[in-house]
Every structure is written in structure tokens, then in C-alpha cells.
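Regression test attached.
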Amino acid sequence: GENVEQHPSTLSVQEGDSAVIKCTYSDSASNYFPWYKQELGKRPQLIIDIRSNVGEKKDQRIAVTLNKTAKHFSLHITETQPEDSAVYFCAASNILSNTGKLIFGQGTTLQVKP
Amino acid sequence: EAGVTQFPSHSVIEKGQTVTLRCDPISGHDNLYWYRRVMGKEIKFLLHFVKESKQDESGMPNNRFLAERTGGTYSTLKVQPAELEDSGVYFCASSPDRVLTFFGQGTRLTVV
């Protein structure tokens, strides 16, 4: 069935360093890849997304890359700050389907040490 | 604008009891989703409403779970009778277009 594998499950970095989280998806029909950030006790919030017709997208300190051939996409956070500490989820969906349901990875707990 | 709102934020019930979770989507969003995260695992899809109709309920675990969206506005998810493995965080989400998806803060359900 459809699944998304996400690695690593935990990641600890020093403030100012970069963080990279990687995901692999199985369904070749997937064409939309959002990333969500969930701070403790709060709702998952969309931080960046990418569609399958684009290879890379940047928004200030965060960027996402997509390799359709390898069915692989990654989140890159540069110049990390303590407020980046949270659980990050990758997801994949087929927005041309009749549902657009999101298939999530297992989540990565990112800790940024001051 | 107001976000997706879920009630209650926490619920602790005994095995065999019934619990009803409520979700108020963002006004005007026809698409409403229920997801669940169990024991630190991935967030899993449960079902999808378009207005009041169930579009996809392939993720519902079994017939102890019943979701409704009468009138196409708010939705309820009832678990009856609850089992221990139903414990987890239940998220509701809504979308105007099946692309951008906005999540509620979740209901943490604990079955003891």
C-alpha cells in the first residue's frame, strides 16, 4: 500500500547548524508533498510544500527538494534556531485523486541546542 | 479567520464507554478529514468528507468508529465501545481544495 518513510526519527543540532530530514514515498501517483511542523501541544502547521513539477522550493531558511525518479524528498533548515525545535512531518498525496488524503511519515523530533 | 477547532482537547474514558469528538472546520471548506496518531507513530488517514458526503472512509479501523457531518458543517467522530488501542491523538483537518490542508489542535483520547 501507500507509505512514506521518514528519517531520522530524532535529530539534535547546535544552534546555527543545518538540519536535513529525508522522506521516501511509494505511490508513484503522488504529486504534492507538504511538510508540517508541530510544536509541543500545538496543531501541525504547514511550513512549506512542493508539487511534482518542481525540483526545489525555498522560503527563507527552509527549502525542500524533490527527486521524482528516486521518489525522495527532503527538508533543509539552515541557520537553525531554538524555536525550530519541534516535530516535523513529511507527507505525500495525489491532488488529482477524489480525496487528496495525506500519507504521512513517522515524524522527526528536531532539537536545536542553544 | 478562525482555524479548525476540535472539542474536547483531552478525553479519558474507560474501556467499553462511548466518546464523541467534534470538529468545526474553517468556514467555507467543503473538505473535512479525520486523522489519528497512535503512540508516536505516523499520522494516519481515517476518512474524508466532501460537504456532508463520505468521499473516502478507507482508513476507518472498524465499525466501532462512526463519523458524521450533518448539514456539511461540523463533524463528529464517535467511538463505541472504546478499546485500549483506540488511544491516541485524533486530528481533524479541513481544506478548500484538497491541496492546502489546515489542522486542528487535536483531541488526545486515552482509554483506560
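Expected vs. actual: identical. Chain A has a mean pLDDT of 96.
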